């Protein structure tokens, strides 16, 4: 049999070159494209979880046999924790003016170390409960780490660190947050802490609370194979089933009330 070779005409060569050039330029543009802005991602997440409602509110909930109350009006805040001990009823209050403790209504004298410990304990509970609201505090530094897929869902992965100025006593703590690319919800977070010997943890939201215009969550709290598991590895370890649940972070009896904005 005779086969005739098909010759490429000048027009065909030109067309192939045009397609190749377009493809190369598209790849180059993709490689040079700026990564998503972490500030915009955090802003969208805050809006999805309640937006401006975080600015002036009163929230109450029970957490591990203690009752918490938080009031926020712009830059003013007052956090309270009430619980019962064999000695009597304890009321802890942390506000812009500092920390105070009362036993059955009477002030308790504490040194600076214990004031700091109790104050940090209250602040930590409220901080996590109101996430992602605090991620726009002035001391926060944001860095985009990339896109990942967790359980078939697309996420933005963002690192959060803090400046020493205004970052509080725990400014050396580090966080990574995973925000859903379409729903803008905060579904996972990991953090490194330095108190009580230090370590790292991973949390996965498993139940949502839609209360008073806020979207809050309960979490499963995980520990990695090592106490100092790198934060960036937690999404992979979670999907591989290599994490251990050590506790539930549940907000019970939630109540949310909007407050008028006040300044002093």
Count of β-strands: 14
Number of domains: 2
Sheet with the most strands, sense and barrel status = 7 strands, antiparallel
Neighbour order of strands in the largest sheet: 6-5-4-3-2-1-14
Derived from helix and strand composition plus strand pairing, the structural class reads alpha+beta
The count of helical stretches stands at: 4
* % residues in beta strands: 35-45%
Cα(first) to Cα(last) distance is 97 Å
Mean pLDDT comes to 88
Please specify the SSE layout and strand pairing.
Elements: H1 10-32, H2 38-49, E1 56-63, E2 66-73, E3 76-85, E4 88-95, E5 98-103, E6 106-107, H3 112-129, E7 140-150, E8 153-162, E9 174-180, E10 186-193, E11 199-211, E12 214-223, H4 234-240, E13 244-249, E14 252-258
Antiparallel strand pairs: 1-2, 1-14, 2-3, 3-4, 4-5, 5-6, 7-8, 8-9, 9-10, 10-11, 11-12, 12-13
Describe the model.
The protein is of the alpha+beta class. It is 23% helix and 43% strand. The chain folds into two domains: 53-130; 131-253, no CATH class. The protein has helices at residues 10-32, 38-49, 112-129, 234-240, and strands at residues 56-63, 66-73, 76-85, 88-95, 98-103, 106-107, 140-150, 153-162, 174-180, 186-193, 199-211, 214-223, 244-249, 252-258. The strands form two sheets. Strands 6-5-4-3-2-1-14 form a seven-stranded antiparallel β-sheet, covered by helices on one side. It starts with 9 loop residues before the first helix and ends in a 6-residue tail after the last strand. Mean pLDDT is 88; it is low at 1-5.
């Amino acid at each position: 049999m005779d086969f005739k070779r098909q010759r490429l005409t000048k027009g065909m060569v030109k067309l192939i070159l045009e397609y190749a050039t377009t493809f190369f330029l598209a790849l180059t543009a993709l490689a040079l494209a700026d990564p998503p802005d972490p500030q915009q991602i955090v802003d969208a997440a805050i809006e999805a979880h309640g937006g401006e409602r975080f600015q002036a509110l009163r929230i109450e909930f029970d957490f591990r046999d203690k009752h918490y109350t938080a009031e926020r009006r712009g830059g003013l805040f007052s956090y309270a924790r009430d619980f019962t001990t064999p000695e009597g009823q304890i009321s802890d209050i942390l506000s812009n003016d500092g920390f105070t403790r009362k036993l059955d209504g009477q002030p308790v004298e504490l040194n600076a170390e214990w004031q700091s410990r109790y104050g940090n304990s209250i602040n930590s509970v409220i901080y996590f409960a109101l996430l992602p609201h605090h991620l726009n505090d002035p001391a926060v530094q944001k860095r985009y780490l990339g896109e990942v897929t967790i359980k078939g869902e697309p996420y933005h992965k963002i690192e959060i660190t803090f400046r020493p100025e205004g970052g509080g006593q725990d400014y050396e703590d580090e966080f990574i947050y995973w925000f859903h690319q379409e729903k803008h919800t905060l579904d996972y977070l990991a953090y490194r802490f330095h108190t009580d010997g230090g370590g790292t943890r991973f949390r996965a939201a498993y139940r949502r609370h839609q209360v008073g215009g806020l979207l809050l969550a309960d979490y499963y709290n995980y520990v990695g194979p090592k106490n100092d598991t790198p934060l960036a590895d937690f999404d992979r370890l979670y999907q591989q089933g290599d994490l251990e649940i050590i506790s539930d972070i549940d907000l019970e009896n939630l109540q949310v009330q909007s407050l008028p904005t006040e300044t002093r």
